[in-house]
Model the fold of this input.
Amino acid sequence: MKFVAGQPRLHQRFPELRDSLPHLKLGSRSPVRRLEGLGLWLKDDGQYGDGPWGGNKIRKLEWILPDARRRGRGTILTFGALGTNHGLATALYAREHGLRVALALVDQPLDDHVRSQLERLRQSGATLHFTRDKWRTVAAVPWLMARHGLPYLLPAGGSSPVGTLGYVEAGLELGEQVAEGELPEPAVVVVAVGSGGTAAGLALGLELAGLSSRVLGVVVNDMLRLDSAALGRLSRRAARLLRRRGARLPEAAPSVDVSREWLGAGYGQPTPESGRALAMARERDGLALDPVYTAKAMAGALALLERGTSGPVLFVQTHGARP
Ligand SMILES: Cc1ncc(COP(=O)(O)O)c(C=O)c1O
Done:
């Protein structure tokens, strides 16, 4: 189907959703290009986002922020590690759209990157709660809910079914780019998995777009359950949400291949492969990756090529830090 610029593809594909599923446009179609040096295709979602931050989190916020407003919540309560991109993107964009943000933060290895993220978080106006680890965070939730007056509860990484719609939309966008001849149909789409919404949404979106590309999720986070079953469940919850809001969705059975091979010792811990991928991307194609998410995902993509995967491999750049 031919999409019109400026309106979400989900609304065009399922007009029944126009009134029931509000959307706030925060970015425009992200470009695709061939990375000749590395020998793969790139969808550059680092460029997604018209505001103070870019990357995959912005696509999720396009559905999350209006959902919070529709539910009459003044504050979003969400979760992440000290250097959370998701927390920072949410704080920056929510403030522009009249919502407050409270963040419960767990520890992660401190380096210059994490310190500077934390400084930006402090300046963002979000209320920060240092809950240290996963279990203390879970235990603090009732207190945090009361402290912030029944906030909009958003899981880590924005990977609620509503947030996942951002990548259903991106999957439809990629389908459109394939149909228009900008790139061949990928055999495999490689993406980092931190909380799962990006990979789960893409799998559903690509299936709705009629592509048979497989999604390979490269796990970079050992604090959440992020296997194929968990991501499949998230895709199905997103599909159910669309149906409940009235979409006449065809039967879909999206699935994500998930690998922990490039995780290393844990979240935020570099590996030799991620260091090599970061350097190769910069030197061969001028592509800036981050050490926590996209360098590990790129290590996975390069390994596919080295192992002789047949068909085009597409890497999704999800890192969109802006100074
Ligand atoms: C730069 C970057 N890439 C990838 C991801 C992973 O996305 P998701 O949380 O949807 O799995 C994140 C966040 O977790 C991120 O900040």
Summary: Residues 55-56, 85-86, 157, 159, 192-198, 290, 293-294, 318-319 surround pyridoxal-5'-phosphate (CB under 6 Å). The longest strand covers residues 75-81. The chain has a mean pLDDT of 96.
